[in-house]
Amino acid sequence: MKTLQLAVDISHMAMQRIRPATSSAELLNQTREILENKANELGAYHTCNCIAQEKQDDILVEEYKLAYEFKTLSFRLLYFRPRNAWQIQDFQIENA
């Protein structure tokens, strides 16, 4: 059940982080910092890459892969532009 606990931890962290509007780079850096104490489950950090970006009018979706020694995590960020400024609306982890 280590995988389930990791997913719960990351989801909780994600919801805490999206409340103040922040950039994707800030959010991913904060995620990496929090995951540093999960090194026994994930292994050493390798890379973070944006693998997809889709934009339709005032909605933008970005997908990222955070690669660790033992596991690769997929993140999806949903942005909304209510008044000419992009805001993170949702942050999901795909495979923790």
Structural write-up:
- It is a single chain.
- The protein is an alpha+beta fold.
- It has a single domain, classed as Nuclear Transport Factor 2, Chain: A, CATH 3.10.450.
- It contains three helices and four strands.
- The chain has helices at 2-18, 24-35, 39-42; strands at 45-56, 59-68, 72-80, 87-93.
- Strands 1-2-3-4 form a four-stranded antiparallel beta sheet.
- Helix 1 packs antiparallel against helix 2 (24-35).
- It is elongated and about 45 Å long.
- 15% of the residues are buried.
- The model has no long low-confidence stretch (mean pLDDT 78).
H/I helix tally: 3
- Largest sheet at a glance? 4 strands, antiparallel
Strand percentage lies at 35-45%
Helices and strands, in order, run as HHHEEEE
Rg computed from alpha carbons, rounded to a whole number of angstroms: 14 Å
Structural class: alpha+beta
CATH structural class: Alpha Beta
Tally of individual domains: 1
Gross morphology: elongated
**Average pLDDT across residues?**
78
CATH architecture: Roll
Low-confidence stretches: none
How much helix, percentage-wise, in residues?
A: 25-40%
CATH topology: Nuclear Transport Factor 2, Chain: A
User: Strand order, biggest sheet?
Assistant: 1-2-3-4
Number of DSSP E strands: 4
The first-to-last residue Cα distance is 11 Å
Keyword list:
four-stranded antiparallel beta sheet; alpha+beta; single chain; Nuclear Transport Factor 2, Chain: A; 96 residues
Structure summarized in a few sentences:
The chain is an alpha+beta fold and 96 residues long.
